Amino acid sequence: MTFTKDNHTDDMIPPMADDNLLSSGIVTSEGQESSTPAPDAQTPDEPPAAPVKKIKTETCVVSGETLPRDQMIRLVIGPDSTLYLDLDAKLPGTGFWITLGQSILAQAVRDGLFVTADQKAVTIPENMTEIITKALTRKALDMLSMGRKAGDLITGADKCEQVLRSRKGGVYVTAAEESAVTRRKLVNLARSLPVIDQFSSADLSTHSGAQNVWHAVIRRGPLCQPFLNAVDRLNKFNND
After folding, report:
1. What is the secondary structure of 29-93 as a DSSP string?
2. What is d(CA 7, CA 95) in angstroms, rounded to the nearest whole number?
3. What is the C-alpha separation between 176 and 211, in angstroms, rounded?
4. Contact indicator for 95, 117 with CB cutoff of 8 Å
5. Which CA distances in Å does 154 have to 48, 91, 150, 166, 175?
6. Distance between CA atoms of 234 and 143, rounded to whole angstroms?
7. Do 217 and 161 contact (CB within 8 A), yes or no?
8. pLDDT under 70: residue ranges of the chain
């Protein structure tokens, strides 16, 4: 199977065989862009203004609301007229942006909003909600793998305690099934740091490259915010 080009990209995407590959994320539309107003012209004595970061936005096909992409998710119709998850917005084809939320997805399916340009029937996987949840979960956990490779992920209660006491931690992560005693101790040391406790020990172990991981700390640095953003996207989809 080969995806065709759409109006927004000249890239060709290789065939995809299953949901796991499809849900790894791929998206296409260029989207709208919004930014804060440019500053007034500066006098020669003023320092140059910092470049304005543009935020790509899209319009939800369900609500009609225009939002930043990180608050939305894209689905795309493949050449076989099947609806696929397009997590990273790179896949050519007829795409649909929806606000993150299981109820929004259910409404789009119920109202028949996923249709081809020529109104052909679209096959929607019955487990689309599960596909999206797993993809968003994997996206967040992959950040831990990146932290491990960069040397910014610390695992083990004792080592985490040292990092938290030194005030070098950025995010404290504890297994969902961890006992209250150790967790409470490290949470107290974390103070105002974000605490993430929704992933299992098995997930933390797999993505940290260690065994029996119950506690982990991401060092303060550039990885913390992307990880928190990925977790936030997962929670918004599951808890709307």
Report:
1. ---EEE-PPPPPPPPTTSPPPPPPPPEEEEE-TTT--EEEGGGEEEEEE-TTSBEEE-TTS---S
2. 11
3. 16
4. no
5. 39, 35, 11, 13, 14
6. 13
7. no
8. 1-50
Q: Classify burial at 103, counting beta carbons within 10 Å of its beta carbon; exposed 0-12, middle 13-18, buried 19 or more.
A: exposed
Amino acid 44: pLDDT:
56
At 68-98, the pLDDT tens digits run 999 999 999 999 999 999 999 999 988 999 9
Residues 149, 124 contacting (CB under 8 angstroms) = no
Tell me if residue 128 falls in helix, strand or coil. helix
How deeply is 17 buried, as exposed, middle or buried, from its count of CB atoms within 10 A (0-12, 13-18, 19+)? exposed
pTM of the predicted model as reported, rounded to 2 decimal places: 0.76
The tokens of 157 are what? 């209660």
Is residue 94 within 8 Å of 81, Cβ to Cβ?
A: no
List, for residues 88-128, the tens digit of each pLDDT value.
999 998 899 999 999 999 999 999 999 988 878 899 999 99
Q: Of all residues in the chain, what percent carry a pLDDT higher than 90?
A: 69
d(CA 32, CA 98) in angstroms, rounded, equals 15
Token pair of 120 as six digits: 């052909």
